[in-house]
Amino acid sequence: MTYVTTDSAPELLQAFQGLDVDQQLALFYFIYKEMGDAVTPAAPGASTVSPQIAEGLFGQVKEMSFDEQLQLQRDLIQKRETMITREYGALGNTTKLLFWYLLAQGMDSSEIVPMPSEYELSAPAQELLAQVKALGYEKQMTLFRDLVAPMGVDSTTSGRQGI
């Protein structure tokens, strides 16, 4: 499966990808906390396939230890090949967005490793958060899809047979 970005905000996409992995994860969470009310109505019904696919993948993550959950999220961003990163890579972009939304909800309910209470975003991540908040709703949603699209491992191009 290939992904297509829409170039709604290429400079924001590039800035996000330039952050270290943990800052990217934190920024995702802070975006959810800041704009959850805007994302919430779109995410559950947004998937063009059954939401059960994203929920099934989320269920696998929920069964992991907190350390394993955090490592999986890092693996998704860093495109490390595991069974779950390959499953994620096979999802459509909107289903990937729904999966990340479920992860953020799981963090709030402590089913997924929570954000440390003392964690602070770096200055570049704070600036990026402010820029994302300034975008209109449609551009935000497009940017979010563009952020999650390349994550995971595309099994059709990975060239590896074993996991």
The CATH class is identified as: Mainly Alpha
Main beta sheet strand tally, sense and closure: none
**Can you tell me the CATH architecture?**
Orthogonal Bundle
Topology as a string of helices (H) and strands (E): HHHHHHHH
Structural domain count: 1
| SS elements, strand count | 0
Shape: globular
How helix-rich are the residues, as a percent range?
55-70%
Mean pLDDT: 84
- Termini separation (Å)? 18 Å
Q: What structural category characterises the helix and strand content?
A: mainly alpha
**CATH homology superfamily:** Orange carotenoid-binding protein, N-terminal domain
Tally of alpha and pi helices: 8
What does it look like?
This protein has 163 residues and is an all-alpha fold. The chain has a single domain, classed as Orange carotenoid-binding protein, N-terminal domain (orange carotenoid protein, domain 2), CATH 1.10.2090. The protein has 8 helices and no strands. It has helices at residues 10-18, 21-46, 51-62, 66-78, 83-89, 93-108, 123-134, 137-148. Helix 3 (51-62) crosses helix 6 (93-108). The longest helix has 26 residues, at 21-46. The protein is globular. It starts with 9 loop residues before the first helix and ends in a 15-residue tail after the last helix. The model is unreliable at 1-7 (pLDDT under 50).
